[in-house]
Design a protein that fits this description.
The structure is a single chain. By secondary structure, the chain is mainly alpha-helical. The protein has a single domain, classed as Serine Threonine Protein Phosphatase 5, Tetratricopeptide repeat (Alpha Horseshoe). The chain contains 6 helices and no strands. α2 runs antiparallel to α3, α3 packs antiparallel against α4 and α4 runs antiparallel to α5. The termini are far apart. The mean pLDDT is 85.
Length: 114
Amino acid sequence: MNILHKTTLLTLVMIFSCMAAFGQSAKMKRASKYMQDLNYSSAIELYQQVLEDHDEAEAKINLAECYRHTADSENAEYWYGQVVRLPQAEPIHKLYYALALQENGKGDQGENMG
């Protein structure tokens, strides 16, 4: 493979990487807008798409929030369970996780969160 082919291939890889990153960023912005508009079901769909492609703490946190706001305690429990393990987790996330556990009949699990 000559230098021209290598350069072309590298350029294409960089372009596609940038396009993917821009797409994720656009989805995050749209999902945040849906949350602001209280359109949680649309936000959930976009945050799930983001998380399929990239492990993004903000998407996990917001997804947990969306499920809490839609009274989906099973999914809220799962996602808050993911959130409380993140460095970005705040005390309120632990509270919401404990509340979801309690709502799902698992209140004794929340006692060990510290």
